[in-house]
Every structure is written in C-alpha cells, then in structure tokens.
Design goal:
Leucine Aminopeptidase, subunit E, domain 1, single chain, 38% helix, binds adenosine-5'-diphosphate, alpha/beta, 177 residues
Length: 177
C-alpha cells in the first residue's frame, strides 16, 4: 500500500475534464444548478444530471453528500456536497467543511470509487477563507485515507491561481513551482 501523501495529487484546471471515477460538486442545499463549479458540472454533464437529482432528492444539508451518475462527463459519478456559507468562523463552518469532504469520501468508498477529484469547496461564492479551507481539506482527506486504508487516489483540482499556490505550499513545501 502506498503512503497517504503519494495518493494525494494537485491539479490546476477545470474539474469537468478530469478522467476519474468521481468528481465532487460544490452544490447548494436545494441542489439547484448554480454558478461556479456547480454550473460548470451541470453544463458539461447535460440535463440528465439535474433530472436524476430532482427525481431522487429534495435537497442536501450542509456537510452531507449525495451521488448521481456523471452522464456526459468523463467521470462515472458526481458526488454533490454542500459546504458552509462563511459567516465569521464561529458558526461551525470548519466542522461543516470537514464533514463535506468526509461525507463525499465515505460515499465514494461505498461506490468502489478508486479515484476522486475535489474542487475547493466553499471558497467561491460561499467565501470560506482559502488557506483555512485548504488546511481542513488536506487534513480531512489524509485522516480518511489513513483510517480507512482506502485504495483511492485523491485529486485537488484548483481552478484559481490563489488556491493552486496555497495547496502547492501545503502539499509540497520544499518544492518551488
Ligand atoms: P462554493 O459555493 O462552495 O463557494 P463555488 O463554485 O462558488 O462554490 O466555488 C468553489 C471553488 O470552485 C472556487 O475555488 C472556484 O474557483 C472553483 N471553480 C469554479 N469553476 C470550477 C471548475 N470548472 N473546475 C474546478 N473548480 C472550479
């Protein structure tokens, strides 16, 4: 079994292009197509994604996750999770963000997912501070891989340069860009 760190990868770009078993979507609690990464995933997957969501779910609480097929995406599944709306950091935002990552990973494990790509949940319109979000994301993923010994490759896909630099610094502190 490889070490936990060797199963965590950093990618800069568009998550809809990822050839992985599952991509994670930063959805909203109503599971309605929105902007940001959610809009990109719905556009790339096609309308069947929305139909399946609406057929099976009335919504998704912050910190929880639901799974659908990937339709026109290269990914087989989309795991829709809901991050916290940032207020001031004293309303359980850290715990909800960690739970969003953890719920997504648990659902992935249940569906025998061997490779999964995460966007930077919460750091767009929900305004979670980027460095704090990255620390929580990395720690939650590492703990999950350690605890479960899951045979899973995890990709952090950063769309914006800020997030990419932050993840690079945290994951590869001794490698300059
Ligand atoms: P949230 O509501 O959880 O903040 P957003 O979609 O607004 O969700 O933003 C989450 C992150 O997704 C942001 O860092 C944004 O830069 C990133 N993002 C936007 N489009 C894409 C995409 N096509 N692929 C990967 N990440 C994306």
């Amino acid at each position: 079994m490889n070490t936990v760190s060797s199963r965590i990868h950093l990618v800069k770009g568009d998550i809809t292009r990822m050839r992985v078993d599952a991509v994670v979507n930063a959805a909203n609690a109503q599971l309605n197509p929105g902007g940001g990464v959610d809009g990109a995933i719905h556009r790339a997957a096609g309308p069947e994604l929305f139909w399946e969501l609406k057929r099976k779910h009335t919504g998704c609480a912050p910190g929880k996750a639901v799974i659908t097929n990937g339709y026109r995406l290269p990914a087989k599944y989309v795991i829709h999770t809901v991050g916290p709306v940032w207020k001031d950091g004293r309303h359980g935002e850290d715990e909800v963000l960690a739970s969003a990552y953890r719920s997504s990973l648990e659902l992935a494990l249940q569906h025998d997912v061997k490779s999964i790509a995460f966007p930077n949940i919460g750091t767009g319109v929900y305004k979670f501070p980027k460095t704090r979000a990255a620390q929580i994301a990395i720690e939650t993923v590492k703990n999950f891989l350690k605890e479960t010994q899951a045979d899973m490759e995890v990709y952090f896909v950063c769309f914006d340069e800020d997030n990419y630099q932050i993840y690079h610094q945290l994951l590869h502190p001794f490698n300059p860009n």
